[in-house]
Amino acid sequence: MASVFVLEHLHTLSSGEESWKRIGIYRTWDDALAAIERVKSQPGFSDYPLLIDRLNDKDGFHIDKYTLNKDNWQEGYVTV
Prior knowledge:
The protein has one helix at 29-39, and strands spanning 3-12, 18-26, 60-67.
């Protein structure tokens, strides 16, 4: 099955609010890594230039793999 790799960057503000930036969507993991190399020296990104494991919601770059034509969120949600 075909997949894509979504590259995002997280910066948690002093208020605790999360500020996510979607950098791009790439065909391969290596393409997403190359994008990190291109932007990690830019203002803001350079403060948190590391690639972070999604299980640890920490500031920095995150890459997630998505399978095309698949529902990636199948449960409902509750607003509190």
